Amino acid sequence: MSEFLIRNAYVIDPLSGIKGEIMDIAIRNGRIAEEVGSNAEVIDADHCLTLPGGIDSHSHVCGTKVNFGRYMSPEDMRAGRTARKGVMHVTSGYSVPTTFGNSYRYSVMGYTTVLEGAMAPLEARHTHEEFTATPHQDMLANTLFDGNWSIMEAVREKDMKRAAAVVAWTLSAVKGFAIKLTNPGGTEAWGWGEDVHSIQDQVPHFGVTPAEIIQTMIRANELLNLPHSVHLHCNALGVPGNYRTTLDTIDLVPDLNDKRQSLYLTHLQFHSYGGSTWKDISSKSEDIARAVNNKPAVAIDMGQIMFGRTTTMTADGPMEFKLYMLHHNKWSNHDVELETGSGIIPVYYSRKSLVNCVMWAIGIELALLVKDPWRCMLSTDNPNGAPFVKYPEIIALLMSRRFRENEIALLDPRTAHYVPLPAIDRELDWYDIAVMTRAGQAKALGITGIGKGYLAPGAEADIAIYPLKPESLDPSAEYQQVMAGFGKTRYTIKRGRVVARDGDVVVEGANSTIWTRSTVPPGYDLSVDPEFMKKFEQYYTIRMSNYPVQDVYLPRGICIPTEASL
Amino acid sequence: MKIDDVVCPFCGCLCDDLVVEVEGTRVVSVENGCTLANEKFMGDHRLKTPIHREGKGWKETTYDEAIRETAEILCDADRPLLYGWSGTHGEAQSIGIHLAEILGALVDNTSTVCHGPSILAIQEVGHPGCTLGQVKNRADVVIYWGTNPIDAHPRHMSRYTTFADGFFLKEAFRDRKLIVVDVRKSESANIADEFVRIQPGGDYAVLSALRAIVQGKRGIIPPSVAGVSREQLFRVADLLLSAKFGAIFFGLGLTMSRGKSKNIRNAIELTEELNRHTKFIISPMRGHWNVYGSNEVFTWITGYPYAVDFARGIAFYNPGETTSVDVLSRKECDACLVVASDPGAHFPKACAEHLARIPTVQIDPHVNATTHLSRIQIPVAVTGIDAEGTAYRMDGVPIRTRMLFRGTYPSDTAVLEQLYAIVKEIKGP
Lengths: 566, 429
Hints:
The complex is a heterodimer. By secondary structure, chain A is α/β, with parallel strands linked by helices.
């Protein structure tokens, strides 16, 4: 029996209603306990900021396209090399680090749970292999359904229950966590080099629209009683004027769940553009934030960009090709039969580019203009907007108007004409940040029930202690300290073990993979459905029996079972 | 006992629809397999026990002894090379890389003598590709360039291209145009709608001509390019441009002929150019069943697909310097561990001679050319027959190979885990 006592911690635990109190935290056998014995090992937190372990609800760290981002980019691998040290393996990479690189860097920043934003079901085994090699975070996989033929056929037949059955079979087969739609319909169109441009465009050959796919999937998700909502990457990402598509999408969302949002809109910065060309692109963050504020049934993450080099990677194949036509650097694409697509290109976000300056402002504006921090997660869509190691800098920008002013002074001077940021005074506080980096994510993902995102007795003992003393630190003025503090914990504790200290990982990891399995009535069991089996007989290039991810790939899997209401 | 949906561990097609009949620890029949698959499953003549050299002859030894001796060889070496990996499952590859990490060794896979140049081209310009089902369901134009699938990947055409009916092509053989580009009229060329015969070494020029035509510059094309007439070039370009979905598959005829990585770069740039007009993809015809898996595993652990040198403590990659052939021809290595490949048969003579000079250990089920260069050989189970694990098809689709029966041989994973534990003990924390 292992016992720990963290004394004198300055605790913010939003889900438990603790907004900054000096208190002790007892840990027994990996969970938060009421109390521990006198032999417990003691950590003196010395009034430092103590939060539940960080949770990233949208990040690209494992799987086919992530690994191809590494494969095609030796220049990025060279940009972040560390040698073997203690229990730490060699790491490579800056924007797309190796799996151990991702895991160590997240751990040092206090992150203990990460959701991979896009897993193609056909290639799920790959994602799970990399999850095992990302040992310090519990991992979850958003599973792509945007171009899924069986789903689109169900949508065309207006058969929501069949759509739910397809999701249930697939999530269970590939050990996925939630439904992800990336440019719904667009990835199938890209199979012919085409795209859809609004939520009312028809998907070639399938006779459905993105709006119909989105609406059906939101309802199918609730029929399955899944912990998370549908997780949507809207159509028309990165296109000037796309805020209308985003507003149209938000309009579609019904309020179907009293515990969390009914739709999670990811990396909304990339979907909040006004103007009609790259020359007159402008921020529509105010319109978007207003729509979000007025619609409690949606939650978002920022998708902040930060200046410098990174690699973009998404299932949105057509978008990556458009981006390539702008950057002319190098381009990879990988369409996945019957399911989805993907693309990768490296980019450099520059302060000398007006477009990039506008994008930078929009992300921050969204975080400041959305009033409810529970519905706005901090993210960069790692690594699309920036590698996650930039989170501390984003936190500092949100907490300090002075820092923002200093940064704005470095931008293309025309920026102010296109964005409202200079006029926004709001500075977020420690509580807001705690919500936007862990508690909000736990609620939005629906994983509080398995003990994630809070520090009350019974919760998983995932804890981050930062060298920051909120009682005496003014984040508005001392933003440099805020940035440094969030970059390196004094202690990161995972399931009751100290895993990182002062910038070094100190133990071998033993993470879990969290997935969902919905039990459906016999009539909806697609493993014996002739029409569904025909997909494998005739169109897939892999046999149905070889498709499911075997249990051996999840050495410490945590299944969240649900009972479908079909 | 008949086992369905068996995965074939021979080539990069990784066919997963074989039916294999097993009696005890013996395969007695194979259905759906090509001749290569049948030979792999049926013609299984294995080394019985570990062997090592004593004097001028071989002597049988135990697994414990052979593994201990291997660990000592590797720990004594200043510049060990761990080579091969493409013929085993991902879990074993992963241990191999971590072994290289603690040894400060070079670790390299067979890409170094096959699609290494393709990888270099991809690192310059990227790779527009897809899974093979996209081709099967959509492609109306397919090109095989510098590859002869009928001999080398016998079921590629029937499972994924020419003979494979798909969702949007109900009668593939009739509706799908086949173009074969090669320096000789291969078996595959015999069934092509268009056979383009190129003079040896002329691929780069022909690719450049096609790019020019696709860019609308027909006027600059000379009457003949590397033996290909202007008329045929126009005809081929028109076929490409009229495709709704085109797929280019290339083999070592393009990758390892004059121009090497630049040929591949040119082919990828042609594909990119075609995507401005229609939909096109390009893909290498990978050889070993899990060579792509070795690239994947290498990449997520080290950041690089092959040719990784841990001598500096960090992962260092510089093909031409850290590639096995270069390291061996410089006589730099002083010990080598070969796993699941046969460099004795595939490497240049000077490299094979160096392997024979230094202590070389082979982990492989069969006696092969490398056996004759080795000091020790440790036989293991064959993945896909009596061992299981992850493999990556040539298009990146991961499939778990099956264990058809439990035999008496340890798997690559088991042997490497034991080796790793001993090396770790010797090296200390």
